[in-house]
């Protein structure tokens, strides 16, 4: 089942859905996601393996793998960067 | 030199000699008076220039190392034009910079094919011809510090390099005094594959390197040259060239 309750995988998660998964990943560690997208990941304690967890959760939702190299990951600094990166990764083009 | 020693190399096959360390190896060996055959997926202008300048001593080919038929044909051509191959430098490899969980199965298989299966097959091919011809020879496998030290983003790559080092030890046992087989394991270079490492990661490596700098290809060349030419009893070994970063 996907987060929207449907059985079939959806092709891509929108920004709100990505943000909801990010909230869940942080909540599981007792952390809150600040409002907006400008918060620094270092400040909220969101590390590289947390990004891996989030990406793998997205994969579960959309039913396909989102493999990627590390250099792109190193440019991510803010919550907005995370949402941008995952949005681009889901783009089949 | 005693009767039992493996003679110095005279005709060397270098895989991946079109750029970076591989090209430097080719240039160094040609400069040392050896005949060198080298191949890579594509021939760079630098390698073409060298081959044009030394047509009797350098043969360059555009060959994909995973193409077994093309590789075999290139070896035959090299022996026809340069003479019997009595040394091999397994240098060709592809890099990695992705966490294991985010590395696609196809990419993982490709890393193993290029970095482990292909050099083992090339080694087998060269050794079969060497043994059938009653010749002795030398093999140098270019591995990496990450064969024995962990780095994030290099899981499959490290496995292939560790595999080559393990194979080297067993090859030394199999080949006894017919061929000397060794590895050189450079630390991270400032260029090439290190270009994909983050600044923080490179900075951390430099900080824990007692010599205070990343390894340069020029620092690896004398060791390869020694393993190919010098009268030594070094066999089945890995020589690490990393400024003691991993010590």
Automatic annotation (TrEMBL), chain A:
Carrier domain ranges (all copies): 12-90
Listed InterPro entries: ACP-like_sf (IPR036736), PP-bd_ACP (IPR009081)
SUPFAM superfamilies noted in UniProt: ACP-like
Protein name: Carrier domain-containing protein
Automatic annotation (TrEMBL), chain B:
Gene3D superfamilies named among the record's database cross-references: NAD(P)-binding Rossmann-like Domain
InterPro entries membership: KR_dom, NAD(P)-bd_dom_sf, SDR_fam
Organism expressing this protein natively: Actinocatenispora comari
Transmembrane segment boundaries: none
GO molecular function: oxidoreductase activity, acting on the CH-OH group of donors, NAD or NADP as acceptor
Domain Ketoreductase per the UniProt entry, residue ranges: 10-188
Pfam families tied to this protein: adh_short (PF00106)
SMART domains: PKS_KR
Source domain of life: Bacteria
Gene Ontology annotations of biological process type: fatty acid elongation
Entry's family note: Belongs to the short-chain dehydrogenases/reductases (SDR) family.
Protein name: Beta-ketoacyl-ACP reductase
């Amino acid at each position: 089942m996907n987060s929207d309750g449907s059985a079939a995988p959806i092709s891509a998660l929108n920004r709100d859905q990505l943000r909801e998964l990010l909230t869940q990943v942080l909540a599981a560690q007792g952390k809150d996601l600040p409002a907006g997208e400008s918060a620094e990941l270092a400040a909220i304690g969101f590390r590289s393996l947390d990004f891996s967890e989030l990406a793998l959760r997205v994969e579960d939702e959309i039913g396909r793998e989102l493999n990627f190299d590390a250099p792109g990951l190193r440019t991510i600094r803010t919550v907005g960067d995370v949402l941008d990166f995952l949005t681009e990764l889901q783009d089949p083009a | 030199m005693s009767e039992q020693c493996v003679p110095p190399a005279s005709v060397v096959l270098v895989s991946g000699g079109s750029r970076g360390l591989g090209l430097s190896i080719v240039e160094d060996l040609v400069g040392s008076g050896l005949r060198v055959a080298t191949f890579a997926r594509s021939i760079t202008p630098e390698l073409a220039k060298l081959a044009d300048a030394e047509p009797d001593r350098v043969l360059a080919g555009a060959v994909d190392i995973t193409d077994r038929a093309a590789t075999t044909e290139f070896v035959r051509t090299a022996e026809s034009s340069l003479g019997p191959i009595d040394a091999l430098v397994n240098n060709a490899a592809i890099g990695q910079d992705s966490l294991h969980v985010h590395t696609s199965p196809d990419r993982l298989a490709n890393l193993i094919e290029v970095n482990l299966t292909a050099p083992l097959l090339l080694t087998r091919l060269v050794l079969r011809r060497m043994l059938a011809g009653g010749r002795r020879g030398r093999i140098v496998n270019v591995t990496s510090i990450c064969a024995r030290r962990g780095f994030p983003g290099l899981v499959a790559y490290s496995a292939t390099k560790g595999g080559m080092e393990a194979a080297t030890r067993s090859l030394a046992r199999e080949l006894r005094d017919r061929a000397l087989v060794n590895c050189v394991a450079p630390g991270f270079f400032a260029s090439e594959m290190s270009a994909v490492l983050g600044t923080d990661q490179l900075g951390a490596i430099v900080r824990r390197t007692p010599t205070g700098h990343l390894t340069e290809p020029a620092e690896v060349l004398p060791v390869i040259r020694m393993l190919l030419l010098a009268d030594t009893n070094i066999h089945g070994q890995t020589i690490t060239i990393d400024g003691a970063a991993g010590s």
